[in-house]
Amino acid sequence: MEKKKFTSSIWFTAGVSILVGVIIYMIPIPQSLHEIAELVPARNAERAWTMFAIFMGTIVALILKPWPMGTVALIAITLLIVTRTLGVGAALAGFGNSVMWLIICAFFISRGFVKTRLGERIAYIFMKRFGKKTLGLTYSLIASDFVISPAMASSTARLGGVIYPIIRSLTEVYDSKPENGTERRLGSYLLFTTFQADMPVSAMFLTAMAANPLAMSIARDIIGIEVTWVQWMIAALLPGLVTIVVVPLILYKLYAPEIKETPKAAEIASEKLAEMGPLTMIEKKLIGIFIMVLVLWIFGGNFGIDATTGAFIGLCTMLISEVLTYEDIKSEKNAWDTLLWWATLVMMAGQLNTLGIIPWFSEIVTNAVYGVNWVLAFVLISLAYYYSHYFFASNTAHVSAMYGALLVVSVAVGTPPLVAALVLAFFSSLFGGLTHYGTGSAPVIFGSGYIKQNHWFGYAFIISVVFIVIWLGIGGLWWRLLGLW
After folding, report:
1. Percent of the chain with pLDDT over 70
2. Between the N and C ends of the chain, which has fewer C-beta atoms within 10 Å?
3. CB neighbours of 311 closer than 8 A, spacing ≥ 6?
4. What is the pLDDT of residues 98-111, one digit of tens each?
5. Cβ atoms within 10 A of the Cβ of 48, count?
């Protein structure tokens, strides 16, 4: 039955993708494509429309997921070459993107945290210190997520690999289980709150989520905006910190746990730390390397060392010091999978701009909102981008489909380019909390059975409003103070 269902899903998605591509391909090429000044020579208009058709088919496949993302990426590259839309060199150009290699190195570095159990140790240290009350326990888990996030470019890895197992062990101790109808005692609040708080944590560092550098690469290719690791961190710092402080408090009132005191959590943390023993030599090496990488990311630009070079230095140091082995690198499947689909999507987004599709779309929307104040126009664009995530099951697919086009429109209506690029990029992490399918870690949390679907949608919408108010309100004032607009 499952095999039949899977096969049907493949054929359904393939059919929809082909249908979308054929419909787009058959639409008469808009005359405006030929008229965009020197962006789309007439001879390139057909290539532009073919690129758009293949791109839309790719996005449909990424949303419906009949195949792994890497498979979809390979099919897209092959179609672009076979249809002569792009040459081989242009189709593979995305693999030379420096920002992409930054995130790949972050995946490898994050493996060190899992292999050495340093991430787990950090979580237990926070729990031992702050875990005697439910609210303090929640903040300790969020703090653990925050500390390891710069080097772990996957919220799924952080929540699913480090935080989730700890929470599940705590729910067992306090007999908070969905099968017993006692999920609201502790588990529902802990899981939902740490998940929602991970959204702003993912937005706070360029290397905390794979879609972050994807968005920045698109911004660089389309409007020429270059954002460094430090610029991103500083811009996200204040709204991010305010968010992760406020969200647990709001949910503590709206989605309150029945248990307010958790002394056993601190005891469990002490026992786990005792079992783990003192810091091992390999953990000490990893701490030193992690600090070195952070220093290079923050100050390396003063010495001509960009963030990607700093990440490579850290990775090589881990290999030389045997914190990681080459076998570890080869077996990091998520990194190599990300390399494939990430490079493909960046390449396609760049080509959509080069061939004139995005400028054409921007011209149409800009004419539609002509005369509207740029602040109001950008708020409306941002809200449309945020809440359209209800229709996406992947941050990456959403960024690939809409980020570049809406960024160009935002700039065209008068939004300061850097602010537009950053806000839409921050939202690309924040909107992952809207649904139980909207980002990779969501099914892990929802699948535990602790959070009912109606609770998820209702409370997540409230939190989304909090996110937007804080990031556009407090964030806007912060960016004004920083001189970004």
Report:
1. 89
2. N
3. 101, 102, 105, 106, 109, 207, 293, 297
4. 777 877 887 788 78
5. 26
Determine, yes or no, domain membership for 133.
yes
Q: How many domains does the chain have?
A: 1
Q: In degrees to the nearest 10, what's the CA dihedral of 307, 312, 318, 322?
A: 180
Which residues are registered as beta bridge partners of 261?
Answer: 133
- Would you list the DSSP string of 355-411? TTHHHHHHHHHHHHTTTS-HHHHHHHHHHHHHHGGGG-S-HHHHIIIIIHHHHHHHH
HSE at residue 115, side-chain half, CA atoms within 13 A, is 20
Return d(Cα 345, Cα 424) in angstroms, integer: 17
Look at the block and give the residue holding tokens 């103070």: 481
pTM of this prediction? 0.76
Residue 476 lies in a domain: no
Give Cα 35 to chain centroid, integer Å: 36
Tokens describing residue 411: 């700039």
In the three-class reduction of DSSP (H, G, I as helix; E, B as strand; rest coil), residue 261 is classed as: strand
Residues 194, 183: Cα–Cα separation, whole Å? 15
Question: What does the pLDDT look like over 380-396, one tens digit per residue?
Answer: 899 989 998 887 777 88
Position 145 in a domain = yes
Indicate whether 29 belongs to any domain: no
Question: Which amino acid, 384?
Answer: A
pLDDT tens, position by position, 137-175? 899 999 989 988 888 777 777 887 778 888 887 888 788
The distance of Cα 367 from the centroid of its chain, to the nearest Å, equals 31
